[in-house]
Every structure is written in C-alpha cells, then in structure tokens.
Design goal:
OB fold (Dihydrolipoamide Acetyltransferase, E2P); Elongation Factor Tu (Ef-tu), domain 3; 36 strands; alpha+beta; 5 domains; 17-stranded mixed beta sheet
Length: 637
C-alpha cells in the first residue's frame, strides 16, 4: 500500500531551517567579534610628573575701552573740515569749524565793556588811595588849617611843608656868557649878616649880553626868605659880580585834598618836622568805598561774560578730546548747515581694548578681577608665539540662561597692539590654577564607582579583571592625600575642594552626546548616573571585598574579551584636573602604566573613539580638545 506524500511538511520546515541558519550565523558572528576583540591592542599611558594648568577659555570681539562720538554743540554752517577717515589725532586738535561771525562781534563788544569797567575801577581805586595823604617832601609843617573830624572837599588846602635847609636867589651877570658862568666857582654875599657863603649856580639863561642865574645856598640856620644878597663868580680872567636878588625857600609844597572826605586821622602838628613819604592825614568817605566795590563787581561780571563768550565761541569748533583715530566721518561740505547735536565723526582710543567672553555657571566663581589672561588672535600671526597679556576687568553678577544652562559675561582688557583692530576676533585663556611637579594621568583613564575613582594599572601576575588593593604614592607609602609630593600648595583643602576644579563651557550638543553615550554603555545604571553631579573623592581605605562588590559589573560593561588582561583596577586619590589630565595624589607611582579605555570602531562613520570611562561623574562643564603634553593645560571650550 502506497504511503501518502507529506508535502504539508515543507511549509513547516522552511521557517525552522531559516531560524536555525539565523542563530547559527549570530553564534559564528559573535565568536568572530570576540576573536577580533582579542586581537585589539591595549591603549596605555604612563603615570608621569608635569605641570597641570587649569584655565577657562572663550572668544570675543575686541573694542576700544574709550570711544567718543564727536558732535556739534550749536547750529551753524560748515566753515572748514580738518579730519578724514582713519586719521590719527591728538587731544586738542581742531577737526571742524563753523561760521561764527556774529559771535566775533559780540566778543569785541564784551571786551570793550570790560576795558571800560576796568578804567572806572582804577579811578575809584585811586580815590581810595588818595584818602591817605603822605608828605611829598621832607620839611617843617606850616599853615596847618584842619583838625580831626573836619569835612574837606576836593582841592581844599590842608597845610604847607617847607624845607628850610636850602634857599635860592635869582640874580643877573652883565657881559657874561652862560656856558662859562655855569662852571664858575660862586660866592653868595649876604650884607645883612656881613658874611659870604659858598653857593652853586643851578640854572643859567643867556639873554643877549647878560646872563640870568639861579644861585643855591645852604642855610646855616639864620637865613630866611626876603634877605637881599648878591653873587660873585670867579673866572680865570677875574671875577664877575651880579645884581642884587632876594632869598626864597628852595623847596616848599602846599598840600591839598584830592578827594572829598572827613579827616579821620591827623598825624602832624604845626612846626613839626617830617620826612618825605610819611602818612600825615587820613580821610574817610563811605561812598567811595561803596563805589569801589560796585565797580569791582562790574569788572568781575564783565570778565565772566567774556569767559562765557569764549566757551560759546569754542562751541563753533569740534576738537579732539583725546588722542586716537577718527572713524565714521560724516560727508560734509563747506557752507552746509548742521544742527546742534549732529554727529560728525567717532574718535577711538586704541591704547586699551576690551572684549567679553561667557563663562559657565560651574566655573564663574573661579574667575576674579585682575587674573592674568593669555589672548591670541588668528589675524595676528605672531600672537601665538607672542600672545597679548591682558587681565580680567569685571565679572557680571547677572547671567544669561539658555536651554537650562546659565553663563556669565566676563570682561577682559588688553593693551593696544599693532595689527589689533576694532571688531577683531580673539581667543582668551584665563589662568585659574597651576600645579607644578605633580603626578597625572589622562582623564580618560579614570573610572568611577560610587564615590571612588578607579584606574586599570598594568602589574605583573595580575589576572584579567582583578581588583587591586590601594597602593601608596610614588614613595610607596599609604599616606594621606595632603601628604603627597607636589601637594604643598593644597594644605587645608578637602578632596571635594580639589576635585571641584571645573572645566570650560560645554555645548548642549556635547552634553546630549555624553549622556547618550553613557546611557548606551551602562543601560539603567547610566540613567541613574546621568543625574548626579558628585565630585571625585579620596579613597578612604575600604575593604577590597567591598570594592569588588561595587565593581563586580565593570568588566562586563567596559572590557571586551581580554582587553584588560594583565591589569588590575586600582582605587586612586585625585586632585585638580583639566580637560586632558587628572592629578593623582595617592594610589599610583610615577612611571606606572595605566590602561586607557578600549577604542571602539564606528562602522557608520568609519571613525574610532575611546569608550567613556565607566561611571564617570565629573562636574558637567564641557570637554575640550585633549593634549598629549601633560605640561600644558588644554584650552577649554
């Protein structure tokens, strides 16, 4: 009996065969990947000493600290223009003048008014000075006609002063020449006293055949006006006799009042001898003092009006208030009208420039005014080798928030430099901290579990994935972090203080990429870590079994195959860090080799990158480019 063909089994077997082929392919592919992973070369780095710099970086555009808008202060018409675009000027240079004809006329009028007021003041001042009467000559007081309290007017005779030491007489010589007579020795004969005294001819006048002469004689004490005398001139050929004349006082002054007033003081008496220049009478006139003060105020007002006029005149000129460069010059023509307040140019002082960068809220408290700033500009070729040295000027108290991230403007000032132009883009690096001669490892070598940082270290006899006990510092001891070499400057700092040294600003895209990468690598663990912001802490010497328990999943998450073969996971103590390196204060020795995370190929992009360290939970501040030179800080972005 024929068996029935079982065609119905074919549709059932086909899916089973396909499933079996698929799983077989997956098993073979997994083994191939595992075998390939075993062939990956370990990425390592050496624990070394160097200088660890922490800096905050940013970019901005430079502008002059001082910028002046030049404006006209009055309405007018353009007279002359002395400025052009890019011109270098000095303070006080005239840049523009306006027509000021009416102002010139007004200024001349004010000047004339001032001169008139000054003349009036001088007249009143002389009146005040004339109220104090001084002796015009030395002599004896005669004919004193006033007393204290008397009212006198201008021109009133007050007294007479007579010099009784000398007298003179006018005589005539017949048949004598004036020139010969003037140099002759003369005697004066006084018949009344039957005596002869030596005399002196003080004046001669030739009149046809005779000469009139004035003869001076000193008073021996008894001579007085009215006594008749005659003179005799001794010449080489004989003597000449004069006619008779009468004696008169040679020096006598009548003192009169030169202004009206009341006799306030009288310092002399009749017959009193006085010296020339002595104050003899003082008058008082209240009206004169009032008039003097009034005229003085008028002079002061006239001067003020002129000063104000000069200020107004200066308004018709636009001058440079400082040294600098002219830009944004308005196109003006001579005779063109301009209005008060019209801007005609801009003056820039390039001696000091400033720009502003944004600093993340996690780092802004590390910035202080006065901090040194290294500034470079792509447009200035030698600025890399010879950077511009500036300093922090101000740190804003109010920040700008965008997408949940707050940043604060920091203003930096730099000196002017050849080639540095307005609006030019510059890069700034604020020097926040610097640790010299310190142990450091690449930042990517660190892994974190809980509050402890871990590093894979190559050590002899180590099994794959082993957990190592903490080791001492480079001296081999288990000293506290504060006792580590190169840590003298951190006395009194806690590990949290040291580990809280921040990074530069991180873009939203970088933050998102970092969180996504950690989540993909760690699954649910990554989601929990994603919200933490804890700082790196020092290892406190917990039992190795506890550390093993906490890190039991590390190998399965981070390593692939035997990538970490020959390395142990060692807890370390950390200090400050930048974008590239972390300071190690305990747990590692100088010269040891650490294993960096396995490099993973990205088949979609054809690039490769290192895995993010497992459980890394550094403060989110952004990771910039990584430098291979541990002696230099890396620019933070």
């Amino acid at each position: 009996m024929k068996r029935k063909k079982r065609w119905w089994l074919i549709p059932v077997l086909i899916p089973v065969i396909l499933i079996a082929v698929f799983f077989g392919w997956r098993i073979l592919r997994g083994r191939t990947v595992q075998a390939s992973a075993g062939l990956l070369q370990q990425r390592t780095a050496t624990v070394q000493r160097g200088t660890l710099e922490i800096s905050l970086s940013g970019s901005g555009s430079v502008y002059p600290v001082i910028r002046k808008n030049l404006k006209v202060e009055v309405d007018g018409t353009v007279n002359e223009i002395f400025m052009e675009e890019g011109q270098a000027v000095q303070a006080g240079d005239v840049l523009l003048t306006l027509n000021k004809y009416d102002t010139d006329i007004s200024a001349r009028k004010l000047d004339n008014t001032l001169r008139q007021k000054e003349l009036a003041y001088q007249t009143e001042l002389e009146k005040i000075q004339e109220m104090t009467i001084e002796a015009p000559i030395s002599g004896e007081i005669e004919n004193l006609s006033i007393k204290t309290g008397d009212q006198v007017n201008n021109g009133t005779v007050l007294l007479t002063i007579t010099d009784k030491t000398t007298l003179y007489a006018k005589v005539r010589f017949e048949n004598a020449l004036a020139e010969e007579l003037q140099n002759s020795r003369v005697l004066m004969h006084i018949p009344e006293y039957m005596t002869t005294l030596p005399a002196q001819i003080i004046d001669v006048r030739q009149n046809a055949g005779y000469t009139d002469a004035t003869v001076l004689v000193e008073n021996p004490g008894v001579l007085k006006p009215g006594i008749e005398v005659w003179s005799e001139a001794q010449e080489s050929e004989g003597s000449l006799k004069s006619t008779t004349g009468s004696l008169e006082w040679y020096s006598q002054e009548t003192v009169k009042a030169k202004t009206a007033g009341i006799v306030e003081t009288l310092n002399v008496a009749e017959g009193q001898g006085i010296e020339e220049g002595m104050s003899i009478i003082t008058l008082y006139n209240q009206d004169s003092e009032v008039n003097l003060e009034n005229v003085r105020l008028q002079v002061e007002e006239a001067k003020y009006n002129i000063e104000q006029s000069m200020i107004d005149t200066n308004k018709y000129m636009v001058t440079a208030p400082m040294d600098g460069y002219i830009i944004s010059v308005s196109e003006l023509l001579e005779g063109e009208s301009v209005k008060e307040g019209a801007a005609v140019a801009v003056l820039l002082n390039m001696d000091e420039m400033e720009f502003t960068i944004s600093i993340d809220e996690l780092d802004v408290n590390k910035v202080e005014p006065g901090q040194r700033v290294i500034v470079t500009a792509d447009a200035i070729e030698d600025s890399i080798q010879n950077p511009i040295i500036g300093e922090v000027k101000t740190v804003a108290l109010e920040g700008n928030t965008q997408n949940g991230v707050t940043s604060y403007p920091v203003t930096i000032v730099v000196p002017g430099r050849e080639g540095l132009r307005v609006g030019m883009n510059v890069d700034a690096k604020i020097e926040v901290a610097k640790q010299e001669n310190t142990l450091m490892v690449p930042l990517e070598a660190l892994q974190k579990r809980g509050d402890t940082y871990m590093v894979w270290v190559k050590r002899e006899g180590a099994a794959q994935g082993a957990i190592g006990e903490p080791r001492g510092n480079n001296d081999g001891g288990n000293t506290d972090a504060a006792e580590q070499p190169g840590d003298e400057n951190r006395a009194g700092q806690t590990s949290g203080d040291r580990n809280s040294q921040g990074f530069g600003n991180m873009t939203d895209e970088q933050r998102s990429e970092l969180r996504q990468r950690m989540q993909e690598q760690m699954g649910d663990e990554g989601e929990a870590i994603q919200g933490r912001t804890g700082d790196a802490s020092t290892y406190t010497g917990r039992a190795a079994s506890d550390i093993r328990e906490e890190t039991s999943g590390i190998q399965s998450v981070v390593s692939s195959g035997n990538y970490y073969e020959g390395a142990v996971l060692v807890p370390v103590e950390t200090g400050i860090y930048n974008e590239s390196y972390m300071e190690i204060t305990g747990g590692l020795n100088e010269g040891e080799t650490v294993v960096l995370p396995q490099q993973v190929s990205n088949t979609a992009t054809g690039t490769s990158q290192g895995n993010m360290p497992f459980g890394m939970d550094l403060p989110i501040g952004g990771f910039g480019g990584v430098s291979n030179n541990p002696a230099q800080g890396v620019r933070m972005r």
